[in-house]
Amino acid sequence: MRAVVQRVTSASVQVGGEVVGAVDPDGQGLLVLVGVTHDDDAATAAKLARKVWGLRILDGERSASDVGAPLLVVSQFTLYADTAKGRRPSWGAAAPGPVSEPLVGEFVAALRGLGAQVETGEFGADMQVSLVNDGPVTLILEA
User: Fold this and answer.
1) Which pLDDT belongs to residue 138?
2) Per DSSP, what are the bridge partners of residue 7?
């Protein structure tokens, strides 16, 4: 699994003009874009969730777990794009929807199991993501 984690002061995701998930913390939160590849499993999702929840990128070198910061999780298969040849990305490394959707769900469930307040996008939908990146702080994590 791969995640792009952004420290935000607010973030939301819309589908068809309707907000389906949003975080507007008193301070900072995290927007987490998550991609799944073919050999990922529930253990991988849990490992990545622990990594994200404990990542010390908030003010004062604190983590979301330290301050109860909210997270907005959005599935994004394009994180596994292969751009090595030509100008058209290949998506072969991205797991298909029937594999990745449950694993994104496992990632969200693992975060919630750790005590996180998690909002989500809508898997497979055409989503519009808005955010105010704080810092800016953006990291790429793999599990």
Assistant:
1) 97
2) 30
Pairing of strands 2-15, 18-23: antiparallel
pLDDT digits (tens, 9 = 90+) for 89-127: 999 999 999 999 999 999 999 999 999 999 999 999 999
pTM of the model: 0.96
d(CA 72, CA 37): 21
Helix axes 42-54, 97-113, angle to 10 degrees: 40
Report pLDDT for 121: 96
Q: Which residue has the tokens 């810092």?
A: 135
d(CA 143, CA 47): 6
Q: Which amino acids are annotated catalytic?
A: 76-78
Alpha-carbon distance of 109 to 67, in angstroms, equals 19
In whole angstroms, what is the distance from residue 63 CA to residue 141 CA? 15
Specify the 3-state DSSP secondary structure of 143: coil
Count of other CB atoms within 10 angstroms of residue 116: 20
Neighbours of 141 (CB within 10 A): 15
